[in-house]
Amino acid sequence: MRKHFPLAPPIEQIKQHLFGVSEGLIQAVSHGETSSAIANAVRRSPEWKEYHSDIQNARTAKPDEETRCPPPTIPAQIRDLIRRRVAAAALAALPLPAPGQIIAIDKIVTPRPAEIDAIMMVPLHVLLDEPGEAPAVWHGWLVSAETDYASWWDFVLQEQDAPFDPEAAMVQLWNPVRLYLPMAERVVGRLAPARLQAVRSLAADFLASEAPADVAAWPGRAASRATSAGLRVTTGSPLGDKRDTRHRYQQLYFEAAEAIRQPARLALRELAQIPVGREGTFLHRLIAAAGRATELLLPEPRVAVAMSRDGASGIPDLSWPNVARLRLHQLTAKGEGRMEVMAVGAEPLVVEVRKGAQVEERIDLPPGGVDTVSWDQASTALLLITTSGRRLELTLEASDPLID
Fold first, then answer.
1. Residue pair 149/258 in contact by the 8 Å Cβ criterion
2. Stretch 138-159: mean pLDDT
3. pLDDT for 5-18, tens place per residue?
4. In this structure, which long-range contacts are made by residues 393-396, counting pairs with CB atoms below 8 Å and at least 24 apart in sequence?
5. Which residue from 14, 25, 75, 269 has the fewest beta carbons nearer than 10 Å?
6. Domain of residue 158, residue span
7. 383 vs 125, 187, 289, 335, 363, CA distance in Å?
8. Which residue, of 263, 293, 328, is where some domain finishes?
9. Residue 133 φ/ψ region, left for φ over 0, alpha for ψ in the -120 to 50 degree band, beta for the rest
10. Which of 238, 263, 288 corresponds to the end of one domain?
């Protein structure tokens, strides 16, 4: 293994960054945004005491002591990081999801919030590849910042990939993930189709072959090479022996990626609970239609109501997060149906049943309002529109026979 300069940042600093008590976690505890178990553990940590000690020292500092010090000089490296981050900020306006987008994830979201008693310690990033087994789930790879730790199976972004946030500079092909889309916060990078194809080519090589034995391990070095398909990529060298700290680096990030993998597993489990049969086929079709419109419809268990027979069928509701909740009451073999719609967000909601361009039925729901719409076998679409202009068009036409 060839020696190189010490890798930056040090591995213990990376561990602390990923799993230590961060300032964001301390603030979440201070604002009451965590469970009591997490809050108690954080309050016992030395970081909690240090954070509040620093605040107290800042409050008691004398004004003349503060003004006597000249303003600090920002190093050129930090100025460059700021410039790159500002340049990538414009990508946040892009609609998601789309292949090639690098997504920032700031918090854990699951179909049932109480299922995971955890909080995202630090933001993580994922490069989106393609939709997964369900519209709410996409396949991708974890993306990190520490290019010094690049291995043979890490795709290091180049200037041609700019703009991208400096925290998302290296795609870990050895660390694939499924992303539950409600966790996606914003776009911080975007690979061109040709560059995404190069990533996919490198990922295919990772699955089909081993790193070459005749290339020396050289931690801290990255170089251009070709994939088996002839596409140019920039990667690190193969991993070396146990002294190579990149082994520890990969272990840390593989563990950190569980904060992304587990919500996706729970979401897929929820989708799998949609029963087979006519109603289940119909709900899956609505979920897929929403996914094609880059919106989410998520199955949620029905809330049990005393003396009601609604929950007996096991058919879940569909949630358009923070906008509407849909409850299927009836669906015939001919395709006629009846559905309850509730406006669960802060905006009024318009619900229309259409036959082509013709509006057959329309209801206006205030926030918290609920009503029922019906359709016949000739109806073509159920349309939900918010006052801010968001639209969710769900086809009522069957592309295949409904299953009894």
1. no
2. 97
3. 789 999 999 999 89
4. 393/289, 393/293, 394/286, 394/289, 394/290, 394/297, 395/285, 395/289, 396/335, 396/337, 396/353
5. 75
6. 11-263
7. 33, 28, 12, 17, 11
8. 263
9. alpha
10. 263
Higher pLDDT, 55 or 366: 366
Tell me: do 239 and 339 sit in the same domain. no
Whether residues 324 and 213 fall in one domain: no
Work out the end-to-end distance of the chain between its first and last CA atoms, rounded to an integer number of angstroms: 63
18, with CB counted inside 10 A (0-12, 13-18, 19+), is: middle
Q: Of 260, 244, 233, whose CA–CA distance to 116 is shortest? A: 260
> Could you tell me whether strands 137-144 and 232-236 are parallel, antiparallel, or unpaired per DSSP bridges?
unpaired
The values of phi and psi at residue 145, to 5°, are -105, -25
Cα(127)–Cα(142) distance, rounded to whole angstroms? 6
- Give the DSSP per-residue string, 183-197: GEEEEEEE--HHHHH
Is residue 179 domain-shared with residue 239, that is, in the same domain? yes
CATH number at residue 297: 2.60.40
Structural domain contains residue 285: yes
**56: enclosing H helix or E strand:** helix 46-60
Q: pTM here?
A: 0.75
- Element (H or E) spanning 277, and its range? none
Q: Distance between CA 132 and CA 121 in Å, rounded?
A: 26
Domain count, the chain: 2
User: 230-252: per-residue pLDDT in tens?
Assistant: 999 999 999 999 999 999 999 99
Q: Are 187 and 103 in contact (CB under 8 A)?
A: yes
Question: CA-CA distance, 77 to 59, in Å (whole number)?
Answer: 30
Q: How far apart (Å, rounded) are the C-alpha atoms in residues 92 and 86?
A: 11
Helix (H, G, I), strand (E, B) or coil at 372: strand
